[in-house]
Amino acid sequence: MNNPGAAAPDAVDPDAAPLPNHNPIFHLTAEEKRQAMDLKEAVEAADHIENLSDFDYVTMTLGCDGDIPRAVDATYKLQSFRKLYNIQETPQDGVAALRGLMLSQPETILEICYLPTEHTYWFFVDFSKFRPALVQSYDDWRHFQAGAYYIYRAMASNLQSIKTGAITMIECDGVTTDNVSLEFEERIFIELFSYYPVRYKETFCLHSPMAFVVFLGVIKRFMSNRMLRSIQTAATFNGYDGRVDQLFKMPTVEIAQERLLSRMETYLTERYQNERDFSLND
Q1: Which residues of 188-200 are buried (b: 16+ CB within 10 A; e: fewer)?
Q2: 186: closest CA among 220, 148, 214?
Q3: What's the pLDDT score for residue 20?
Q4: Which residue intervals are annotated with compositional bias (Low complexity) in the record (predicted)?
Q5: Does residue 21 or residue 162 have the better pLDDT?
Q6: pLDDT tens digits, residue range 85-129?
């Protein structure tokens, strides 16, 4: 088993977690800027694809590793996804979507926090609390998929965080067959996860039982190469060998969830402000 090499984020004490850097102008290399301009030109020439903000052109090309045809395809798929689930692209809609996800899958989403010293977002999940059988109706799917979409948006609030990539900690202790569904995983990857432009820095699966290891092997065929390379199984979290959910349910689950939603609103507000302010011409 591999132990996570990165230091634990400050949000282990959630109230002490720092906010992101609010400066919307971040350095791009000449190549990164050229790739974003190439994508902008391709999208503006495509009648079936709506134009993006300059910030989003950079987001797409960075997340797609400069592969312009792939970025064009992902741009169109995201446009279709937003229409399917009525994504409003506002902090308020994002918080409402995440709240719906958290209410429909209690205690599954534990924390989202930003480390400005590392320009990295950390995302904590308790997979043992997830119940795919509860996701049936359109509203159920909207809660899950829109919530996931806005989490991705929040974790790409500035260009440096996009370049660095996100770290995900998945608590797997107690996972059983009730927590897994091949049909569910296939749908979420087809609709969003397989093409969303995100850099996965590290994904740690903690305390993984055999049921989860087997399931992970089955769903690997849906994953991008970048996602696959990021996955590690681990016994501890920075030397802590307990369940990670116990680090965040303080002083109560309800207060911790409201704190998370407030933090989510801050990150999304920065994201959309950067979209308005950033220009490839600067």
Answers
A1: bbebbbebbbbbb
A2: 220
A3: 45
A4: 1-18
A5: 162
A6: 999 999 999 999 999 999 999 999 999 999 988 889 999 999 999
